[in-house]
């Protein structure tokens, strides 16, 4: 798939990437596989070398415009990272906070969520974004083209500025 060919090498190097592709062309694995490879999996030696404060905290954050896309992406990332023990959580509005908070407290490696719920949980102190090493913004084409919703969510400019960023526009 062209989007994977374009994204994989650059994202694995930790470079910022902007890509756009139609639905069903492999975008999720194009950004998801590098994210999985670049974070420390719980069973890896790299994980044991993380500061204790960073263990069990999200290292990857994928922001999706809708809960449906967040659920789909979380499922794909979970399947792709299963062999490494990567723990993935989808967070979005319209469901109770408690199961999401309980999962965050138990330990999560990758959070996939909608901006509103990410902002809510981070604002409440339940979602610690200070250890995020990889950031993916999955946007609708309208937002990627500079239209409505083009401004990144506030948590992107606060504390995540150093994380490599992949921006994927969903056509």
Structure description:
- With 171 residues, the protein is α/β, with parallel strands linked by helices.
- 42% of the residues lie in helices and 18% in strands.
- It contains eight helices and six strands; from the N terminus they run αβααβαβαβαβααβ.
- Strands 1-6-5-2-4-3 form a six-stranded parallel beta sheet, with helices on both faces.
- Mean pLDDT is 84; it is low at 141-150.
Topology:
Blueprint: H1 2-12, E1 17-21, H2 27-38, H3 45-49, E2 60-63, H4 67-81, E3 88-91, H5 97-106, E4 110-113, H6 115-124, E5 134-140, H7 141-144, H8 154-157, E6 165-170
Question: Terminal Cα separation, in Å?
Answer: 15 Å
SSE run: HEHHEHEHEHEHHE
Poorly predicted segments = 141-150
Q: Indicate the percent of residues in helices.
A: 40-55%
Oligomer: single chain
Give the spatial strand order of the biggest sheet.
1-6-5-2-4-3
Q: Which of globular, elongated, flat, extended, rod-shaped describes the shape?
A: globular
Helical/strand content category? alpha/beta
The residue-averaged pLDDT reads: 84
Helix tally equals 8
Q: How large, in whole angstroms, is the Cα Rg?
A: 15 Å
Number of strands: 6
Strand content is 15-25%
Task: Describe the largest sheet.
Answer: 6 strands, parallel
């Amino acid at each position: 798939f062209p989007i994977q060919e374009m994204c994989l090498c650059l994202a694995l190097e930790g470079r910022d990437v902007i890509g756009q592709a139609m639905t069903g062309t492999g975008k999720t694995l194009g950004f998801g596989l590098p994210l999985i490879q670049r974070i420390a999996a719980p069973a890896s030696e790299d994980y044991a070398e993380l500061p204790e404060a960073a263990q069990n905290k999200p290292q990857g954050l994928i922001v999706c415009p809708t809960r449906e896309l967040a659920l789909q992406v979380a499922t794909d990332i979970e399947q792709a990272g299963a062999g490494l023990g990567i723990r993935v959580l989808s967070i979005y509005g319209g469901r109770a906070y408690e199961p999401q908070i309980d999962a965050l407290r138990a330990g999560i490696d990758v959070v996939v969520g909608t901006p509103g719920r990410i902002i809510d949980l981070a604002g409440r102190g339940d979602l610690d974004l200070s250890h995020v090493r990889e950031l993916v913004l999955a946007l609708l084409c309208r937002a990627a083209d500079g239209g409505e919703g083009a401004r990144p969510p506030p948590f992107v400019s606060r504390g995540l500025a150093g994380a490599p960023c992949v921006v994927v526009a969903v056509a």
